[in-house]
Amino acid sequence: MLREMHRKLQESRNDTEDGKTDLLWGSIVLAFFFFDRSSELRGPVARDSSTGGTTHCIKAVDVILRNRHGVIIEPGSVAAHSVEILYRSHKGDQVRQGTVIRHYRSGESHLCPVIAAETCLRVRPRWLHGGRRLGPFLTSVNATSTIKKSEVAILIKQVARTQGSDPSNYACHSMRIGGACALLAAGKRETVIRLMGRWASWCFSVYTRLRPGMLRDVAESMIRASAW
Of 35, 108, 191, 211, which sees the most CB atoms within 10 A? Predict the structure, then answer.
């Protein structure tokens, strides 16, 4: 689905493209790899009363690129090896302890968290240099607004429809769920998924779904591990 979303966005580009498509795509990829909640990347930005009225939307200064030696570098450098996001607060962090999640290069140009972060961070200074006023958030498009949840939801539903799925089953939250399912399919422990997704409980397990590829070697694994 992600590849089809990317293809559809590229088709929608026009001569007046100012970087918003790149920012939108970068935010989608980050949401998938970092299991981001909609409120952490997109607007309308709201305050969470359950955590003292804080805003959880990620700020541009809290997205950090590092080279192979762990040194912080600027976006646009081919030396970027990893990206980390500092979540100063989030829905599951009632005491605002903060969390840092790091990802490394995936090996794919269009589906890479490092490249996605670089893309978002490159758009911002270009807009500022052009005189545009921007808010502090990574996905800010002007002084008061960010990429909207509805923009992402519309794209996801369009792609779902073209792939024969029921669009009503998809929304912005699908990127977070899809990322968790992908990591589970890759064989990672639920503890890793819970920590990366910043879930305060095991409630995320109700979102995950079995996929055929996840079951391919189950019988073999059960025999190897069984004491029966």
Answer: 35
Does a structural domain hold residue 226?
no
Tell whether 228 is covered by a domain: no
Q: What is the pTM of this model?
A: 0.82
- Alpha-carbon distance of 1 to 168, in angstroms, equals 15
- 72-73 vs 82-87, strand pairing mode: unpaired
Domain count across the chain:
1
Contacting residues for 5 by C-beta, under 8 A, at least 6 apart: 25, 28, 155, 156, 159
Range list of H helices, the chain: 2-11, 20-34, 38-41, 113-129, 149-162, 173-185, 190-196, 218-225
The answer to whether residue 59 is domain-embedded is yes
Q: Interhelix angle for 149-162 vs 173-185, to 10°?
A: 60
* 8 Å CB contact between 98 and 87: yes
Average pLDDT over residues 73-81: 85
Strand partners, 140: 146
What the block records as the tokens of 182 is 């992908």
Q: Are 123 and 130 in contact (CB under 8 A)?
A: no
Q: Phi/psi at 87 (nearest 5 deg)?
A: -95, 100
Q: Which residue segment(s) compose the domain that 200 sits in?
A: 1-214
In angstroms, how far apart are the furthest CA atoms of the chain?
70
Q: Which residues pair with 160 in a beta bridge?
A: none
Report the mean per-residue pLDDT for the chain: 83
219 within some domain:
no
